[in-house]
Amino acid sequence: MSLHESKKQQLLNWLQAKGVRDDCPACGATGRHPGDIVAPPTTPDGGGTVVGGPNFPLVQLICQNCGYVMHFATTSIQMPT
Ligand SMILES: [Zn+2]
Prior knowledge:
alpha+beta, three-stranded antiparallel β-sheet, two-stranded antiparallel ribbon, 2 helices, 22% helix, binds zinc ion
């Protein structure tokens, strides 16, 4: 699901309020941009997976230098999906 511009700003404000570091954990560069809202493809359930089971929507944050993708739970950001 594509992220609306107002939601992108909400994410960036939330990251700043929480003190999330601006440097990429993979390459160390600064500069990132919000991606889309995604859901994990599978949900672990013991030794197997549950298709269609509970999932936790995530919002992407993508490094502009190397493309490393971080994910944050939309529930923590209070971002409706
Ligand atoms: Zn990077």
